[in-house]
Amino acid sequence: MIDERKLYRHRQAAGAHISADGQTVDLLRYTAWLFHQRREKLEAQRDPFLNPSGQSHDTRGDAYARKRSAETLKQRLAVDEASEISPLPAVGDPLRRARCEFDFREFCETYAPRVFYSPWSEHHLTAIERIESAVLHQQLFALAMPRGFGKTQLCRWAVLWAVLYGHHHYVCLISATEQSSKRIEASIRRALETNRAICEDFPEAAYPLGCLDRSTVRGRKQRCFGEHTNVDISKGILRLGGLYLPPDHPSFGGDNRAVIHLPQTRDGAFDIPRDWRLSKSSGAIITSCG
């Protein structure tokens, strides 16, 4: 079977070999011409001395296919180059970062001075102590505080403190309502994208997220030193880490993968996925409760 467009290309290439009057096509001559074209192509592929230039005697259709393949490869290379975000910026202030690793109060005062600008009360210090025990020593507490005492802000920054320093690789923060969960998600994402001190001291977490420009599609192809960053900003989930860290990085040798899960609350139920998994660099698997 042959279509009209391909026949037109063959007539332009063969000329008088298949059409004596330029109006009609001699079927026998056309068949012979196709046979010779096919034989020359096969011989050129088998014996390079018959084709010193190294190019096969292709038809215009083959040339168009090669052009399409070259353009596709060029576009793919351009996408890969745009998806590469290396090199990773150096840590801005290693001493400031190290000072807050095991001190949640210092972390709040250093990286969120505009949020925690008032003096700490006794209740706040008790809450900070409980949060440190829960994050660092996996202890469990039930602590109630009056409305307006900053419970939500403490929880937001406790989540960031836990994942940025690698104290925990999976953190789930449950809110009372769906709107509250969305506000917390926006606040945590905004802190990772716009907080200057966090962006300077934790580039392995903030830099890839900032390069996404809040685009989920970019996260699927983003690479650092040729490796996928595995950054994800899906609804209710912030996936960080998975980067190659240079030897001079404070977290070199550790596992910098982490997930912040903010489940949506609807009718008293939480949409925590039962089959969610996080593979650590050591080979261990962290699964969500279900």
Write the layout of secondary structure elements.
Elements: H1 4-14, H2 27-46, H3 60-83, H4 94-99, H5 104-111, H6 122-137, H7 151-164, E1 170-172, H8 178-194, H9 196-201, H10 203-212, H11 216-221, E2 223-224, E3 227-228, E4 237-240, E5 258-261, E6 265-266, E7 269-270, E8 277-279, E9 285-287
Parallel strand pairs: 1-5
Antiparallel strand pairs: 2-3, 4-5, 6-7, 8-9
Helix pairs in contact: 6-7
What does this structure look like?
This protein is mostly helical and 290 residues long. Helix content is 48%, strand content 9%. The chain has eleven helices and nine strands. A three-stranded mixed beta sheet has the order 1-5-4. A hairpin with a 5-residue loop joins β8 (277-279) and β9 (285-287). α6 packs parallel to α7. The protein is rod-shaped, with a radius of gyration of 31 Å.
Give a summary of the structure in a few sentences.
This protein is mainly alpha-helical and 290 residues long.
Helix/strand order, N-terminal first: HHHHHHHEHHHHEEEEEEEE
The residue fraction in helices comes out at: 40-55%
Strand order of the largest sheet: 1-5-4
Tally of separate helices: 11
Oligomer: single chain
Beta fraction:
5-15%
Low-confidence stretches: 48-57, 285-290
Query: What gross morphology would you assign?
Result: rod-shaped
**Biggest sheet statistics:** 3 strands, mixed
Distance between the termini: 58 Å
Derived structural class:
mainly alpha
Rg calc: 31 Å
Mean residue pLDDT: 76
Number of beta strands: 9
